[in-house]
Amino acid sequence: MAGAPAAPAVDQDIDRRIAQRLARLRTEHAWSLDALAERTGISRATLSRLERGELSPTAAMLGRLCAAYGWTLSRLMADAESQPPQLVPGAAQAEWTDPESGYRRRMVSPPAPGLRGELVDVRVPAGANVLFDAAPIAGLEHHLWMLDGALTLTVDRTDFELRAGDCLRYLLAGPTRFQATGKREARYVLAIVRP
After folding, report:
1. Counting beta carbons within 10 angstroms of the beta carbon of residue 85, is it exposed (0 to 12), middle (13 to 18) or buried (19 or more)?
2. Tens-place pLDDT, residues 49-58
């Protein structure tokens, strides 16, 4: 049980780095908190708390922020890290947990300069529902390979029922919803290719 306290410290560390990167992104775009609130639909007060690291962002919030900046969630997480190496040992793969749904996202192969693809391992708790209001980058190519459990994925108002072994290929253009519909968590690998 000695390893149990390490996970919260890692989660807090990535939350802190994401908060710092969000603050820098807003500054780089020369947007006020009010301007960003208008673009994302997230209140000014909430944005301020996110950037100060006082509040852990939900997947939906990060989705809206990434859409405003034209970034993928994976890029935001990777950018919060130092320069990504070619070899990413399992123990060094960053993981982020949505405080609202329990959705976990592990960066197996984070984005890197000069490369267009990334690989993500995702776990959605049974019954959890994760909604992304908009595509962070229009035309982003996804290949979702189900490893375990059951998932209903809604892409552009079309529902896809996925089970272990299924693979769905799609281009992002609008909102997406991921819902774990089985009695256990849904686990899948997502290959993302930027246009």
Report:
1. exposed
2. 999 989 889 9
Q: Partners of 192 in the beta sheet? A: 118, 142
- pLDDT given for residue 180 in this prediction: 98
115, pLDDT greater than 80: no
**Chain position carrying tokens 């947990």:** 97
For residue 88, what are its two tokens? 């990413």
Tell me the pLDDT tens digit for each residue of 57-72: 998 999 999 999 988 8
Cα dihedral 18, 185, 177, 62, rounded to 10, equals: -10
- Which residues, 6 or more positions from 110, have their beta carbon under 8 angstroms from its beta carbon? 74, 77, 78, 81, 84, 88, 94, 118
Phi (first) and psi of residue 102, to 5 degrees: 85, 0
SS3 105: strand
Nearest to 142 by CA among 156, 129, 128: 156
For residues 7-24, give the mean pLDDT.
74
Q: Which helix (H) or strand (E) holds 102?
A: none
Two tokens, residue 175:
């909102």
d(CA 159, CA 183): 19
